[in-house]
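Morning, I've got a small favour to ask if you have a moment. I owe you a coffee for this, so here goes:

…
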Amino acid sequence: MNNTAITQFRDTGTLYLSAPEAAELVRRLGLPHCLQHMAEHIRADFLRWADFDKTARVAAHSKNGVIELMPVADDHRYSFKYVNGHPGNTRLGLSTVMAFGVLADVDTGAPLFLSELTLTTALRTAAMSALAAKTLARPESRVMALIGNGAQSEFQALAFQHLVGIEALRVFDVDPAASAKLVANLKGSGLQITVCQSTAEAVHGADIVTTVTADKAMALILTPDMIQPGMHLNAVGGDCPGKTELHGDILNAAKVFVEYEPQSRMEGEIQHQPADFAVTELWQVLRGERAGRDSAEQVTVFDSVGFALEDFSALRFMMDSAVALGMGEHMALIPQLADPKNLFGTLGRVEGVNRPTQPAAALPG
C-alpha cells in the first residue's frame, strides 16, 4: 500500500461496503461488466500464483453445516473471507451461504476494506466457473445443462452467457419452484431456457454441464451413462468433506482440473480418489505450463470448491469499483489514536479505574 493510502486510512478509517451498497454497485456497473472484470481480476492473480502465501481454508463443521475462514496474502495485501454453508437455513428465513471479508495492508496490518461477500461470492464463483470453461470447454459450446437452480444458478447462467457464449440452458432442480424462480429471474436475458423433468433429460445434448446443488451429502447427481464425449463438467456444489455430486467413474474417465490441490483433496469431487490420482491446477493451464483439453472428444472436469485467492481478486475488484464510484462509508473499525502508544487514553478521563460510570443495577448480568 502506498503512503497516500495509508494517510487516507489514518484520516478516514476502513472503507465499508454494505450488502445494499454492493447490490447498487452491481446495478450501476451492470452485471455483465462485473462478471467480466471479476474474471479478469481472478485470471490476473492466478497468473502470479507463486506470489501468494496459500493455505486450505479452516473449517468448523457441525451437524447443520460449516463455518469457514479463507485467508491468502501476497507481499502487499492480505485478505480473508468468513463464510458459512448451512443448507437448512432457508427454513429459518436465512441464506444458505452468508459471507463477509477484509482486504488489508501487509506492511501495516491496516484493514483497508470491509465488505459483504454473500452477493460478491456468487459473482466470483460464476466468474471463476466461466473462466475455467473458457479455458477448458470446446470453443463452440453453446448449450449448458444447469443442475440445481438455487441461489447461485442465475449468476452461473449469465456468466456462461456473457463470458463463454452459451445461448441455451437446460435446467433441472428437485424443487420445481427453484426452476420457476430461475426462469422468472432470467426473463429478458436472451437465453433459451428449457425446464426439464430430470437430470438425465437436462444433460442430454449439452456441451457444458454445471452442477450447483446445495445438499451436504455424498450425492450422485451425474452418473457415467449421462456423459457424452467432449462435454465439460463444471462441478460447483461439492465443496466440503462428505459432499460430492459426480460418480467416481466419471472422474476416472475424464481429465480433471482443480484450483488448489491440497484443498480439493479434502473437499472436492476428488476427495475419495487415491493420493496419486492425477489432477491439474488451473493456474498451470492459464500460464501455459500444462495442457488443458487434449482433444474435442475428451471429457474435462473443473472440480471447483472455491479458493481464497478468488475472494482476494473479488475484494480487489469491489474495493476499486467502490472507490471509483464514490460508494461505501468510512468507519472507525480501528481506534484512531492521537498517540499510538496510548490505547488506554481512548477512554478519556477515568474517575477511579475500577469504578463503573453507571449504577451496578443498570449493568448487564
